[in-house]
């Protein structure tokens, strides 16, 4: 007799617990109660006849059987998502307008949009990249069906959190900062969120600074930093080849995280827009669980 098949919902909870390091944090992340998460994990262990977690008062750790299950669970969840994306509503059509920060569009969003376009070839995607404040203004005027924007974690309410950005001070590996002089900064213009983070962190520690280079272009900022004009702020995972983190090396202040949230336009969205919104939330939400 074959053992019971895997419940995708339970596997999702299992992966969430692993990536969040605790039942409580996982429950908060996926919007369930802690007892529900515990019950799902117990049911999974009972069905397998194996313990998958070692528990103590501070954290949960995978057992050897749990390590094996994690690999399969991640693959099963990915296959489930891809199958549903390719096999449901394949004939949906229309136009979806989405606003997003440039850096996010060129990294995390590009693969999602490419996969969505292949699954729904009759949908036309219009992607607009801009600063968050300009995206919010355009969204209020009805210019976008969906909008990804950066906000303060746990601050502004509404929308759906899909990603948390850990920020880092970044520079050329050969950069030499002059002693006893203001730190040269390479930043986007006001009202960029990273600019706000950088200046607030330095001011809080009374570290003198000066703006050495300003550009609204991510590529322009990175080129200036590679040329040694100063240091900048980037998400840790988006530091490109040729640049390095210098936070520890120069004893620079820790930068507060930013949060990426998805907003839907008021009223009824088109079927195409709803499908894309679901794909973004599920894909980025699962990827966020894997962040340290």
Automatic annotation (TrEMBL):
A Pfam family assignment: LysR_substrate
Highest taxon above the source species: Bacteria
Sorted alphabetically, the keyword list is: DNA-binding, Transcription, Transcription regulation
Instruction: Please give the Gene3D superfamilies that the UniProt record associates with this protein.
Output: Periplasmic binding protein-like II, Winged helix-like DNA-binding domain superfamily/Winged helix DNA-binding domain
Domain named HTH lysR-type is located at 6-63
Instruction: Quote the InterPro entries the UniProt record gives.
Output: LTTR, LysR_HTH_N, LysR_subst-bd, WH-like_DNA-bd_sf, WH_DNA-bd_sf
Query: Would you identify the family this protein belongs to, as annotated?
Result: Belongs to the LysR transcriptional regulatory family.
**Entry protein name:** HTH-type transcriptional regulator HdfR
Source species of the chain: Methylobacterium isbiliense
């Amino acid at each position: 007799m074959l053992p019971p098949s895997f419940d995708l919902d339970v596997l999702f909870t299992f992966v969430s617990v692993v990536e969040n390091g605790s039942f409580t944090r996982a429950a908060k992340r996926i919007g369930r109660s802690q007892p529900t998460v515990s019950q799902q994990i117990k049911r999974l262990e009972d069905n397998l006849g194996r313990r998958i977690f070692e528990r103590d008062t501070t954290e949960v750790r995978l057992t050897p059987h749990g390590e094996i299950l994690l690999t399969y669970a991640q693959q099963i969840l990915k296959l489930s998502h891809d199958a549903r994306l390719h096999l449901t509503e394949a004939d949906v059509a229309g136009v979806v307008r989405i606003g997003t920060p440039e850096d996010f569009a060129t990294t995390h969003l590009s693969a999602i949009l490419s996969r969505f376009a292949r699954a729904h070839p009759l949908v036309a995607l219009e992607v607009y990249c801009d600063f968050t404040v300009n995206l919010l203004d355009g969204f209020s005027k009805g210019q976008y069906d969906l909008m990804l924007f950066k906000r303060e974690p746990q601050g502004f309410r509404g929308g759906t959190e899909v990603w948390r950005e850990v920020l880092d001070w970044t520079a050329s590996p050969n950069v030499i900062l002059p002693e006893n002089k203001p730190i040269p900064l390479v930043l986007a213009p006001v009202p960029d969120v990273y600019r706000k983070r950088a200046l607030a962190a330095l001011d809080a520690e009374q570290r003198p600074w000066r703006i050495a280079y300003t550009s609204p272009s991510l590529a322009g900022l990175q080129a200036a930093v590679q040329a040694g004009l100063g240091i900048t702020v980037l998400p840790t995972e988006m530091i490109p080849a040729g640049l390095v983190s210098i936070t520890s090396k120069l004893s620079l202040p820790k930068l507060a995280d930013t949060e990426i949230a998805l907003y839907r336009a008021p009223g009824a969205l088109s079927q195409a827009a709803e499908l894309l919104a679901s794909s973004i939330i599920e894909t980025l939400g699962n990827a966020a669980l894997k962040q340290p």
